[in-house]
Structure formats: C-alpha cells, structure tokens
Write a structure and sequence with these properties.
Elements: H1 2-18, E1 32-35, H2 38-42, E2 46-49, E3 53-54, H3 62-76, E4 80-82, H4 90-99, H5 105-115, E5 119-129, E6 135-144, E7 150-159, H6 163-176, H7 188-191, H8 193-205
Parallel strand pairs: 2-4, 2-5, 3-5
Antiparallel strand pairs: 1-7, 5-6, 6-7
Helix pairs in contact: 3-8, 4-5
Amino acid sequence: MRAFLRLLALLAAVSPFAGCTWGQPHVPKPINFFLAEPADLANVRRIMVLPFAQEAGVQADCNKVRDAFVAELQKLRRFEVVPLPSDAREDDELNESLSRGRMSTDSMVRLCNRYSLDGVFVGSVTAWRPYTPPHLGMRTQLISVHSGAPIWAVDAIYDSNDRTTIGDLRHFVEHTQQDFGNLHGWEMNLLSPTKFTSFVAHRFVGTWVES
C-alpha cells in the first residue's frame, strides 16, 4: 500500500508536465556515451558480459542487472554473447582492477584467449533504489581485446523523480510493450524493479548505433 501511495504522489507531481508534450515528437532522455570508429567496432563480435560490480555504499541486485543487459544485448543481434562459466575466476581479477581505476590487461587477455572472445562487457551500479520512486545509475564499457581500449561506454542515471525519465519510460512502454489488461498500465514499470531495470538496460544498449 505504501508503494502504491508513493506511486500516486509521484504521478501527481509529474502530471502537470504531461500536457506540455502532447503532439510533439518524443525526445529520449539525454545519455552520456562513447562509441568508437566503425573500424574499431567491426572486429568485436564475440563478447562476454562479466558480473556487474557495485560502487561503495550501493546495495543492488547485480545479478538481475546483468541479466537485463544480456537480454538486451542478445536482442541487438550484433554480438555473440558467450555465457560466463560458473568456474570462471578471471572476472574477479578484472573487476578488482577496475575498482582501482585501471583494467588488468593480463586478466582480460587470459579471459579472451580462454573463451575465444573479441571483448568483454563490464559494468558497475552507481545508484540503486528498487522501491517507488525507483532509480538506477550505471557505468558500462565494452573493451576490445584487439585494442585493449573501450570501444563503447555509457554512463547515466535514470531517476523516476525526474520528469524526463518518466516521459521516456512511458514512451518506451507504450511503444514496445503489449497491454495484457494490466490495471496499472505503464506505471507498473515504476512498481516493478525488474521492469524498470529492463527499461534502463534497453536505453543503455540503444546507444549502439553503427553508421
């Protein structure tokens, strides 16, 4: 009940802005990202998504966040996403080195050689609130084993206290999801941490646009 009341309060706060966008084309929430030159992207086809880390002070369900990214990357149909074996330990070394601000080149090369990878996808959760109003912040990178450098990086926070996030979420739901009689409609994505995480992962992966 408390979550539902918080949702009602949130919707009441953003409703005055809803009429301002009627009849106007949707503009997605701005997001910071880097995408390398086409020549650097071309030879990265087989990748592995490593377990996500979380920044100090953040308590998040990193496994669910990672699962959402794997699902969206597979929808992209651009990469062969190689499963991470349960006995892999190289990812621990990579995440530990990333937390110190520098990627361990040796660990990445060993991982890529072992599984015949072109690159590794790494991410960290920078902000997380699963209850209403939810927010999720992340930093993600796709690192090429061929160059040893990131060829794709995204850094953003989606906070449902922000009306641009609300507008983006509503547009996403109404144009990509079918309504099966859900009484909450698009607002259900504010009540479900899994749905909100999938939305954010979709927007992150959506920054990959090759010319």
